[in-house]
């Protein structure tokens, strides 16, 4: 079994000296008492010192040319070829092969240690003998139309048939209703239009929110089945003619079907909130309905969607609901047109749930000064098919980063803190590998984790889409000044390229916009939302200025996500792979090597102040007031947080940070700060998310928001019965109080250590 203990280090690795521990502790106590009782009186006297330290903490005075030059695009291409050669769903033979191949590859790079850790988890697979189908049938049994169950032109015998994991198996029949993106507001608009959704088969297009939320909304509003398709508006914006789609471009052909999980819980559904370790309790089958869809769900391509939508009757859908299937007027439905008035939709979903093992691969480089502090870089390994973009683009660059670090070890260098490389299994089954890992080692990670850097889709375009915890968001600016422009090192930095793309004048500074409430769509989620470990999520995506309506990349989770798509269309020169690897190296080594951890705690003041302003402007605070909920104390806590951070900066910058014990103590205070925002029991009615300041919305696991619990509890409160409404008001009162205490507690955490925040 893998262990996060660092007591079994091999010869030649850092050794923790145990001799004279009592003397060492007495000396440490004396040094700390002396150092921390001299609290500064003014900030201005330390202004220059502050600037110098901040620059040093962000790696700005370091020459990164060796690391940047060490990235080898030919190696990345070799790795990608192996990773995407065959389909490799979690729990199946190719995934097992890749576990062994990756572990041996990392050992060959000279990492200190490489281990694997597997978990037996509930997964879901389509039946090879009985593919899932959707058909239009007449009352007399005549079949008018039947959907594809795999993409045209994808003939690999190991390629998975189209399905949505964890869909309810079984049959459903009914008249079709078009529900746009299947968002909660879409269903509410249909309710306002008095559209009857009961016993209907709903059809939604992919995009905007997590597919599992679409399924949950459909079931809540009475649908007996859900069909999800990819609309040309998002996946074939330049036309659907064969000459305009893959393999002639990156756009999706008509039979491309997006697979994906529907589970509304992260990790193994059988062991919610606990790891799937040996002999762990598994919940009864009947309890799975809390987390898995209660209706059949099936994905189709837009060619098949056209066959259904073109036969539908009913009102014309609103203009904002119109997609871009050529020559089609989108209708709400609830009935078929006159020619098909005796027809029904028939859904047949034959998925089979079974427990399978999937393994994580863990590569370790031990730190020389703080081996018990972990800087983690990760990416999942499993895919719904060939997965050349998701996740193999991220895996290929992760392997290259590990290779470069291995080469750097040969020069005699060793990072101050331990670096972990993490290849997750079963991410596509709702983040299973990373969730189980964090749940098993949660105590160690909460106590020792410095940061987790995630790269799921390394590359589907030229443009960085940065997301991170607020405390790390500033790192993107300094790091992109050191990595190369897509045009190469001789053409400036990526920062210069990015600045030009954003049309910032040359003589002006450019502050990149970073999403500081990352959603829960990838493996970073459990680190930040459960364990309180700060995260960065790195991906380079498409040009949303040129294609403002697309969502992600068109071939996502389809049979057309091949090596050729990447090698011949997306990045033939592997220049974006290079930039992605360089960025992971630059930020990862910065976090592992800087003397003072480069977190900017004051950014949380910006996030909370802006969130409160937004809640005042959008009417949420007024609504809370109408419900009898006092928010002024929460507002006071938010307002008082900024001066607490400023006082902490003054205090910290007057300390003798040349003293390693003082440095360690301050780093521990910085490292542990994120945990002050964790709620012990999780957000209201959502135990899996403990972070009270930034977390996904209840209605979209892919999205993030600030103070999410307040918005979730207020939503729909006026539609509740009087008794349920009163219960919801009590929840709101308690959660508002919880937030006030958390924010005040975070401010007290920043007080000088000897005074315990008094």
Question: How big a fraction of the residues is strand?
Answer: 15-25%
Instruction: Sketch the major β-sheet.
Output: 7 strands, mixed
What proportion of the residues is helical, as a percent range? 25-40%
- List unreliable stretches of 5+ residues: 5-49
* CA gyration radius, whole angstroms: 27 Å
CATH architecture of the largest domain: 3-Layer(aba) Sandwich
Structural class: alpha/beta
Query: Could you give me the name of the CATH homologous superfamily of the largest domain?
Result: Zn peptidases
Beginning-to-end CA distance, first to last residue: 44 Å
What is the general shape? globular
Mean pLDDT: 91
| CATH secondary-structure class of the largest domain | Alpha Beta
CATH level-3 fold name of the largest domain: Aminopeptidase
Q: What assembly state would you assign to the polypeptide chains in this entry? A: single chain
């Amino acid at each position: 079994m893998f262990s996060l203990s660092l007591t079994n280090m091999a010869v030649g690795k850092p050794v923790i000296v145990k001799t004279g521990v009592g003397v060492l502790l007495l000396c440490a106590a004396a040094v700390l008492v002396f150092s921390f009782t001299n609290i500064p009186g003014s900030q201005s006297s330390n202004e220059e010192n502050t600037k110098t330290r901040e620059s040093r903490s962000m790696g700005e005075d370091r020459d990164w040319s060796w690391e940047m030059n060490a990235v080898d695009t030919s190696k990345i291409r070799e790795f990608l070829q192996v990773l995407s050669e065959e389909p490799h769903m979690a729990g199946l033979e190719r995934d097992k092969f890749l576990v062994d191949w990756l572990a041996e590859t990392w050992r060959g790079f000279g990492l200190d240690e490489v281990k694997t850790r597997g978990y037996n988890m509930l997964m879901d697979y389509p039946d090879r003998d009985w593919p899932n189908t959707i058909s239009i049938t007449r009352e007399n049994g005549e079949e008018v139309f039947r959907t594809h169950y795999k993409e045209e032109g994808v003939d690999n015998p190991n390629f998975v048939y189209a399905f949505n994991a964890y869909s309810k198996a079984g049959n459903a029949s009914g008249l079709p209703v078009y529900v746009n993106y299947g968002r909660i507001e879409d269903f509410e608009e249909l309710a306002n239009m008095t559209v009857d959704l009961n016993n209907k088969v709903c059809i939604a297009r992919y995009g905007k929110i997590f597919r599992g939320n679409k399924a949950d909304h459909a079931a809540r509003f009475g649908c007996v089945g859900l069909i999800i398709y990819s609309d040309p508006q998002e996946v074939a914006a330049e036309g659907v003619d064969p000459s305009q789609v893959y393999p002639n471009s990156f756009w999706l052909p008509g039979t491309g079907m997006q697979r994906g999980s529907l589970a509304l819980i992260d990790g193994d559904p059988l062991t919610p909130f606990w790891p799937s370790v040996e002999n762990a309790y598994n919940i009864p089958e009947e309890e799975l309905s809390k987390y898995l869809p209660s209706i059949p769900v099936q994905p189709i391509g837009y060619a098949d969607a056209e066959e259904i939508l073109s036969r539908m009757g009913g009102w014309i859908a609103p203009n904002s609901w119109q997609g871009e299937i050529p020559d089609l007027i989108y209708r709400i439905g609830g009935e078929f047109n006159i020619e098909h008035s005796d027809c029904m939709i028939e859904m047949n979903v034959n998925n089979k749930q079974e427990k399978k093992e999937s393994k994580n691969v863990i590569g370790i480089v031990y730190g020389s000064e703080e081996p018990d502090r972990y800087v983690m870089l990760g990416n999942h390994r499993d895919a719904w098919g060939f997965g050349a973009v998701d996740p193999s683009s991220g895996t290929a660059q992760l392997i290259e980063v590990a290779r470069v670090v291995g080469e750097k070890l040969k020069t005699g260098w060793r990072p101050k803190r331990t670096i972990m490389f993490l290849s997750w299994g079963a991410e596509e089954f709702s983040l299973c590998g990373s969730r189980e890992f964090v749940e098993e080692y949660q105590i160690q990670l909460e106590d020792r984790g410095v940061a987790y850097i995630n790269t799921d889709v390394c590359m589907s375009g030229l443009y960085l889409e940065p997301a991170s915890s607020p405390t790390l968001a500033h790192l993107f600016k300094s790091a992109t000044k050191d990595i190369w422009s897509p045009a190469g090192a001789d053409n400036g930095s990526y920062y210069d390229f990015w600045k030009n793309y954003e049309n910032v004048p040359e003589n002006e500074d450019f502050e990149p916009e970073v999403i500081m409430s990352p959603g829960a769509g990838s493996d970073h989620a459990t680190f930040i939302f459960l364990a309180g470990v700060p995260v960065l999520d790195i991906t380079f995506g498409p040009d949303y200025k040129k294609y403002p309506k697309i969502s992600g990349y068109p071939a996502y989770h389809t049979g057309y996500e091949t090596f050729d798509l990447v090698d011949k269309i997306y990045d033939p020169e592997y220049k974006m792979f290079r930039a992605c690897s360089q960025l992971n190296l630059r930020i990862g080594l910065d976090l592992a090597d800087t003397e003072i951890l480069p977190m900017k705690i004051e950014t949380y003041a910006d996030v909370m102040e802006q969130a409160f302003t937004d809640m005042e402007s959008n009417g949420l605070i007024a609504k809370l007031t109408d419900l009898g909920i006092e928010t002024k104390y929460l507002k006071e806590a938010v307002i008082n947080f900024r001066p607490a951070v400023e006082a902490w900066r003054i205090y910290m910058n007057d300390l003798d940070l040349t003293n390693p014990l003082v440095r360690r103590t301050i780093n521990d205070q910085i490292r542990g700060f994120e945990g002050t925002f964790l709620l012990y029991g999780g957000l209201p009615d959502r135990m899996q998310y403990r972070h009270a300041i930034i977390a996904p919305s209840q209605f979209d696991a892919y999205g993030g928001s600030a103070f999410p619990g307040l918005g979730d509890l207020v939503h729909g409160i006026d539609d509740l019965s009087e008794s349920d409404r009163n219960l919801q008001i009590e929840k709101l009162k308690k959660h508002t109080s919880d937030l006030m205490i958390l924010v005040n507690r975070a401010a007290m955490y920043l007080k000088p250590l000897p005074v315990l925040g008094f």
